[in-house]
Amino acid sequence: MTDSKTKIFGIIGHPIRHSLSPVMYNVVFKEKNLNNVYIAFDVDKKNLKRSIEGAKALNFCGLNVTIPHKISVIKYLDRINGEAKLINAVNTIKFICKNNDDENERMAIGYNTDGIGAIKAIEKNLNERTAGKKIFIFGAGGAARAIIFFASINNADVLMYNRTKEKAVLMQKEIKEKLNKEIKVVKKITLKDELKDSDIIINATSLGMFPDVDKSVINENNISCIPKGKVVMDIVYNPIETKFLKFAKKRNCKVIDGVDMLVYQGAEALKIWLNIEVDENLINIMKNVVVKVLKG
Ligand code: NAP
Q1: Burial letters 241-258, b for 16+ CB under 10 A, else e
Q2: What are the pLDDT digits (tens) for 210-239?
Q3: Distance CA 68, CA 78 (A)
Q4: What does residue 33 show for φ and ψ, rounded to 5 degrees?
Q5: Short-list 122, 184, 171, CA closest to 142
Q6: 202 and 235 Cβ atoms separated by less than 8 Å
Q7: 203, 205, 263, best to mutate for ligand 1 pocket (most atoms within 8 Å of CB)
Q8: Comparing C-alpha atoms, which of 266, 256, 208, 275 is closest to residue 20?
Q9: Cα separation of 29 and 38, whole Å?
Q10: Active site (annotated) includes residue 124
Q11: Mean pLDDT, to the nearest integer, of 15-23?
């Protein structure tokens, strides 16, 4: 039940119909007995600015931001946290009072929890740090970018491959300029050898996502490119077991699905908004509700 004291959280994106965030966060609010609510808002490009102004005026406490607004929302925020600034994308906004005397004067601070969410998902599954590991990432889109930046900040040794090589090269330059770190852009011809040398392989492209579930970054004829016994993660969470993860299982790899990243990036947003520790019990509750919806 909501009342006049209910704190409002939500997600803005377009389209937003299939978002799993409302079930994932509302189950936490219920479990923790918090008078909070989380709602999905379909906001198109022309309404983005007004949606941030409106959220401030209505005393919203937090928003997640998804496709296509993660970059464009930045110009409407009052402050951007350091990592989000480096990544140049925001997926979480916290609204705080500008000063203690006036509840109704709010400012919006932008964060990015995608990169840390992916790395946490890996570290929790492996029970070890990723610093110093060789991480191979397919993709150079928004999600890949957050993971590549965060993994580099976290001192992993990053290699990347993208269909459009120019985008990968630009990101390589940007990482050098902003972080003074080297990442390697892999050529198609050396893909197999570089994969063999990597500790962790991540699909951060949209390949394999519903409804194109038969697609994969490695196709069926080249399944031997997936080195045996490595750690393989897919950030696509619908379906939970992508074609790529099926291939990785055939190669006896340890697989991590996209639901884990979704839940850990959500847990980081909860820490930012509510200043709470999200323990493994809560993580499992979030995971179970997401899996239930995806399987239903
Ligand atoms: P995006 O910015 O649109 O980037 C898409 C990436 O996929 C690009 O690198 C693109 O390569 C590549 N790609 C697309 N179609 C391809 C094809 N046919 N062949 C080869 N490469 C192809 O998307 P995004 O925001 O990064 O999201 C990527 C996926 O991650 C989505 O499925 C999304 O749902 C998922 N995601 C999951 C989480 C989570 O918490 N688990 C969080 C964020 C995103 P080009 O550069 O060559 O176009």
Answers
A1: bbbbbbbbeebebebbbb
A2: 999 999 999 999 999 999 999 999 999 999
A3: 20
A4: 60, 45
A5: 171
A6: yes
A7: 205
A8: 266
A9: 9
A10: no
A11: 96
The span from the CA of 88 to the CA of 107, in Å, is 19
Residue 247 three-state SS: helix
- pLDDT score at 60: 97
Task: Tell me the three state secondary structure of residue 35.
Answer: coil
CA–CA distance, 296 with 294 (Å, rounded to integer): 6
Give the model confidence (pLDDT) of 72-116 as tens digits: 999 999 999 999 999 999 999 999 998 777 777 899 999 999 999
Atom of ligand 1 nearest to the CA of 237: 41
Q: Which residues pair with 86 in a beta bridge?
A: none
Tell how far the Cα of 55 is from the centroid of ligand 1, in angstroms: 28
Is the CB of residue 259 less than 8 Å from the CB of residue 237? yes
E strand or H helix at 136: strand 134-138
- Angle, alpha carbons 244-67-122 (nearest 5°): 40
Question: In the structure encoding, which two tokens stand for residue 176, read together?
Answer: 């050098």
Active-site residue identified among 56, 70, 133, 243: 70
In this structure, are residues 263 and 289 in contact, taking their beta carbons and an 8 Å threshold? no
Amino acid of residue 236: V
One-letter identity of residue 265: Q
Q: What is the pLDDT of residue 102?
A: 74
The verdict on the CB of residue 286 being under 6 Å from ligand 1 is: no
Q: What share of the chain is helix, strand, coil (3-state, %, to 5)?
A: 45, 20, 35
H, E, C per residue of 80-103: ECHHHHHHCCCCEEEEEEEECCEE
Q: How far apart are CA 233 and CA 244, in angstroms?
A: 9
Show the tokens assigned to 268.
């980081």
Number of H helices, E strands in the chain: 10, 12
Question: Ligand 1 pocket test: which of 164, 206, 209 has the largest number of ligand atoms within 8 Å of its C-beta?
Answer: 206
